[in-house]
Amino acid sequence: CRHGFFHIVNNDYTHWEMYAIGGSADPTIISQGNRFLAPNTRFDKE
């Protein structure tokens, strides 16, 4: 997400590498009803 307002709703994040949801350039992010399953690799859980 870059610049602006983002509303992220009802997503299933089961496979990500570094960030499931991230932003740059000062966005506003509202995250509701999302499910996050962390990967098994230690370095991806930061």
Number of extended strands:
4
Assembly form of the protein: single chain
Name the beta content range.
Answer: 25-35%
Major β-sheet profile: 2 strands, parallel
Strand line-up of the largest beta sheet? 1-3
Summed over residues and divided by their number, the pLDDT gives a mean of 86
In helices, the fraction of residues equals under 10%
Distance between the termini: 19 Å
**Order of helix and strand elements from N to C terminus:** EEEE
Low-confidence stretches: none
**Rg from Cα:** 12 Å
The number of helical elements comes to: 0
Which overall shape is indicated by the principal axes computed on the Cα atoms?
flat
> Structural class, from helix and strand content?
mainly beta
Write the layout of secondary structure elements.
Elements: E1 5-9, E2 12-13, E3 28-32, E4 35-36
Parallel strand pairs: 1-3, 2-4
Protein name: Pectate lyase
GO molecular function, one term: pectate lyase activity
InterPro entries: Pectin_lyas_fold, Pectin_lyase_fold/virulence, PEL
